[in-house]
Design goal:
Elements: H1 4-26, E1 29-30, E2 37-38, H2 40-44, H3 50-68, H4 73-90, H5 95-103, H6 105-121
Antiparallel strand pairs: 1-2
InterPro entries: DUF4112
Protein name: DUF4112 domain-containing protein
Pfam family, one: DUF4112
């Protein structure tokens, strides 16, 4: 059996990896000449439905990983709602692109995940990852 420190390391690495993915989707770059963040989700939404569907699959992966970390169903439903709203409104030509740039569903979902884990486990206790 692996020592506890290995599990803590895996947990921290998993959260860092998920945060990096959420940032890539929502806020990796800045729109030139502004301080407005944009990620692949906003860029992909230029192609209605197809672009949003592709980034929606990645966003659903983030929700699945939250389930793997033991997030309760109520929070998973909120996270899925963020992804669904992002996909539905984001699929509307022009308006959807503007919505995607402002809404940031993946960053919202990472905040929900972190808040839950901090509430449940405090800042020192870390849950172990589980297979779903």
């Amino acid at each position: 059996m692996a020592p506890r420190t290995a599990r803590v390391h895996d947990y921290e690495a998993e959260l860092a990896r998920l945060q990096k993915l959420a940032d890539l989707l929502d806020s990796r770059w800045r729109i030139p000449g502004t301080s407005i963040p944009i990620g692949l989700d906003g860029i992909a939404s230029i192609v209605p439905v197809i672009g949003d569907s592709a980034t929606g699959v990645v966003a659903a992966y983030l929700v699945a990983q939250a389930a793997r970390l033991g997030v309760p169903r109520s929070i998973l439903l909120r996270m899925a709602g963020n992804v669904g709203l992002d996909w539905a409104v984001g699929s509307i030509p022009v308006l959807g692109t503007l919505f995607d740039i402002g809404f940031k569903a993946n960053r919202r979902n990472m905040r929900l995940l972190r808040e839950h884990l901090e509430r449940e486990h405090g800042s020192t206790a870390r849950p172990t990852l589980r297979r779903v």
